[in-house]
């Protein structure tokens, strides 16, 4: 693990900077015993999977693999095409954090590729040893379970592969095969079950949701003196906001949610939250189940139809934006009943940035002067989606919003952001306490990059647009000499800085003058002493 | 006798590589990609995808981002191989015909490309042996493949620079194969080794990782257009679920 300096930093010198992408020595077997909790019969059956490992699991698993080979071109091409060049071997944050060679993307794929070769290729059938093919045994299945639940499906490896081989696709297929034989993961499958039962990942019932949203309205009124509405199930609203349920219950998510409400208020928009689609997340993707992903997505179509909205906007959530941007039209479309002038769906950052560009939002950036900010590109947003009209908009739009609302913004090292971003360490269905060891280690490249900008620019906080990233960072940042509240929502900064017409000033003594000059940046805060 | 064996060997090898690769391509072609999964930022138009694919196939763009050593050795090998293959057209064509004049023109380049190819292979082999991460992921076939291609290149260079073979005879042998009018194959050892290894490689091709050559064109993370909001993408089997 990275050495964490606890004394207050002197002027930064080269020695202070650790390489966030340092390649560790191989530690074979380091993570082999990390076994996240398995789903019980109840979790499994709700999703249409067998309740426990079935007797003929071997044959069913091979049949399922054969089925996936005919359904997913990527799966087949990726299994055939790897030449073991080694380009991906040092690209996975879990490998960087653990040194376990089976966390190298190609080695992770090979856990499954070896079985594919044995049962589906000529060479593997006749000369298995020569081509690294092996039988599917109970040990192999156990290895699949452990290591395919050490992949956050972040696609970083696919950026660097000369054939674009995406380990996420292999790990989704592996999880689908395991679910099919009754060996599912508790965290993902239990959560999907909650979505079916209650409508969201947290199992937050409509009544509680209503009460929460009302309390948010009260908070907003207290803060601004304005009557800012957060409508629930409002028929005939223009915009349906679909947001991760974490936005209703935890910090810093809530502050981001209040930011959306203020933006909608400032724009004079008619919008609503839905109790049917009270969750943007779609863990069906993590388990590679098209059917479950589709079923979860159909709630959004249903809510949009029932409420008669014209547009769908998604809140800050990384994998949800992937399912929304890349898959929703496929899974739950066509959305020809919505207003064709707007993309379906839209990201809240696209929505906000559009208003900023039109000059419809006004900010007092100095209200964010206590923050020296950097931005974490969430993996799914960065490498599996887009925002705006041009490729790369997913990098620029959130940064543009931050720069419009904050005075002090600094990017982390180039090889750790944008398409090269390193995962938070908790994505892909790994955000569970039983995988905490992995989560802490997997966060180390990102945390090292963050420590470097802290040394270089005095960065104090990091903003993100993903519920999983935010939850993960709140948990692991304290292990890396940060505070748990050093992670912020992008719309939290919007919320702080936005000037609403008729609102009372948050600081009574603040002079709200147009040619107000921001104070000099605060001195670099001392480190460690506050811990 | 040797002529017959090599003639049959090359017919079998040709059928295997062409047939085998066509079967795989058909398989890739007919398997749907049910979801839009380009690695982003990705082109938003078909033309953009062609450009991305060109950069990937001709310049190894992703590999360049990833690892400069693998890129250098990989490039030396593949670019060398491409030129060497083009140079070998002289054994199959009438180079006095106008459309084949480029074959004459390319000869000197192809000759030195042979060295680039072999150097690239040695570099890749050394990485496989000495970089622990790459050694970890290597199966016996990964080493053997490099050794096989190395000896193809090495035997070829030997014939060019050390022990010449009767290349006119070789050309007549191959033209004979093509027109089903067999001509005797020169029987010196280097050419027999060279041709034997080439035929082996051709037979192995469709059953090995060499499928990366057709595979890259079918990789959904590289060949899909980033337009899921604008255009609904639905595969046949997924459409069935909507009924």
Explain this structure to me?
- The complex is a heterodimer of chains A (531) and B (243).
- Chain A folds into 2 domains: 17-184, no CATH class; 193-497, no CATH class.
- Chain A is 45% helix and 4% strand.
- Chain A is built from 22 helices and 7 strands.
- In chain A, the strands form 2 sheets. In chain A, strands 2-1-3-4 form a 4-stranded parallel sheet. A 3-stranded parallel sheet of chain A has the order 5-6-7, sandwiched between helices.
- The longest helix of chain A is centred in the middle third of the chain and has 19 residues, at 206-224.
- Chain A is globular and about 75 Å long.
- The model of chain A is unreliable at 1-10, 509-514 and 521-531 (pLDDT under 50).
- Chain B has one domain: Fumarate Reductase Cytochrome B subunit, CATH 1.20.950.
- Helices cover 69% and strands 0% of the residues of chain B.
- Chain B has 12 helices and no strands.
- Classes of the chains: A mainly alpha (531), B mainly alpha (243).
- The interface between A and B is large, with 73 and 64 residues.
């Amino acid at each position: 693990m990275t050495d964490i300096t606890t004394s207050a930093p002197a002027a930064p010198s080269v020695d202070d900077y650790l390489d966030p992408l340092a390649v560790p020595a191989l530690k074979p077997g380091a993570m082999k015993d990390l076994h996240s909790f398995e789903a019980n019969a109840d979790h499994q059956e709700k999703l249409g999977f067998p309740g426990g490992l079935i007797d003929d699991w071997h044959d069913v698993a091979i049949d399922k693999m054969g089925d996936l080979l005919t359904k997913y071109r990527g799966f087949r091409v990726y299994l055939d095409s790897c030449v073991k060049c080694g380009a991906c071997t040092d690209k996975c944050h879990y490998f960087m954090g653990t040194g376990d060679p089976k966390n190298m993307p190609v080695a992770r794929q090979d856990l499954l590729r070896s079985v594919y070769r044995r049962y589906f290729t000529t060479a593997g059938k006749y000369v298995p040893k020569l081509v690294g093919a092996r039988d599917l045994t109970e040990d192999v299945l156990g290895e699949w379970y452990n290591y395919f639940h050490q992949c956050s499906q972040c696609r970083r490896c696919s950026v660097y592969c000369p054939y674009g081989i995406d380990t996420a696709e292999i790990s989704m297929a592996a999880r689908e095969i395991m679910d099919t034989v009754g060996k599912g993961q508790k965290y993902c499958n239990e959560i999907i079950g909650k979505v079916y039962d209650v409508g969201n990942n947290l199992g937050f019932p409509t009544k509680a949701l209503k009460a929460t949203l009302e309390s948010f309205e009260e908070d907003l009124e207290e803060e601004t003196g304005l009557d800012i509405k957060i409508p629930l199930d409002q028929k005939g609203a223009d915009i349906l906001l679909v947001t991760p349920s974490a936005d209703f219950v935890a910090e810093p998510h809530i502050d981001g949610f209040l930011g959306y409400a203020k933006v909608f208020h400032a724009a004079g928009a008619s919008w609503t939250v839905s109790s049917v689609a009270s969750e943007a997340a779609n863990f069906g993707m993590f388990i590679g189940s098209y059917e479950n992903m589709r079923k979860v997505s159909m709630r959004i179509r249903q809510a949009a139809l029932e409420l008669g909205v014209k547009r769908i906007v998604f809140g800050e959530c990384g994998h949800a934006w992937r399912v929304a941007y890349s898959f929703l039209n496929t899974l739950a479309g066509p959305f020809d009943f919505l207003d064709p002038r707007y993309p379906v769906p839209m990201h809240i950052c696209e929505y906000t940035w559009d208003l900023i560009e039109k000059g419809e939002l006004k900010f007092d950036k100095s209200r964010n002067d206590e923050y020296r900010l950097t931005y974490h590109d969430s993996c799914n947003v960065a490498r599996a989606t887009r925002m705006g009209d041009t490729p790369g908009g997913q990098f620029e739009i959130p940064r543009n919003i931050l720069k419009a609302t904050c005075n002090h913004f600094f990017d982390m090292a180039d090889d750790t952001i944008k398409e090269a971003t390193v995962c938070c360490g908790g994505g892909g269905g790994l955000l569970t306490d039983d995988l905490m060891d992995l989560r802490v280690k997997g966060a180390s490249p990102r945390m090292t990059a963050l420590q470097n900008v802290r040394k270089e620019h005095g960065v104090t906080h990091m903003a993100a647009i993903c519920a999983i990233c935010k939850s993960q960072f709140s948990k692991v940042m304290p292990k890396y000499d940060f505070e748990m509240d050093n992670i912020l929502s992008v719309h939290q900064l919007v919320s702080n800085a936005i000037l609403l017409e008729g609102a009372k000033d948050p600081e009574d003594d603040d002079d709200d003058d147009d040619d107000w000059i921001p104070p000099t940046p605060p001195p670099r805060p001392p480190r460690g002493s506050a811990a | 006798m040797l002529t017959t064996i090599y003639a049959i060997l090359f017919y079998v090898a040709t059928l295997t590589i062409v047939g085998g690769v066509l079967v795989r391509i058909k398989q890739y072609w007919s398997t749907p990609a049910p979801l839009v999964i380009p690695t982003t930022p990705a082109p938003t138009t078909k033309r953009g995808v062609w450009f991305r694919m060109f950069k990937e196939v001709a310049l190894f763009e992703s590999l360049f981002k990833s690892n400069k050593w693998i890129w250098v050795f990989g490039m030396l090998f593949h670019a060398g191989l491409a030129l060497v293959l083009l140079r070998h057209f002289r054994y199959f064509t009438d180079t006095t015909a106008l459309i084949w004049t480029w074959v004459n023109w390319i000869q000197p380049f192809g000759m030195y490309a042979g060295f680039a190819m072999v150097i690239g292979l040695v570099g890749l082999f050394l990485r496989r042996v000495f970089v622990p991460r790459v050694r970890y992921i290597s199966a016996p076939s990964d080493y053997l493949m490099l050794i096989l291609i190395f000896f193809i290149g090495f035997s070829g260079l030997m014939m060019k620079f050390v022990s010449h073979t009767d290349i006119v005879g070789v050309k007549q042998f191959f033209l004979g194969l093509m027109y089903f009018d067999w001509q005797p194959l020169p029987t010196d050892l280097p050419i027999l080794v060279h041709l034997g290894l080439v035929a082996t490689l051709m037979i192995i091709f469709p059953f090995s990782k060499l499928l990366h050559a057709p595979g890259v064109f079918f990789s959904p993370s590289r060949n899909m257009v980033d337009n899921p909001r604008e255009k609904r993408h639905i595969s046949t089997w997924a459409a069935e679920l909507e009924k």
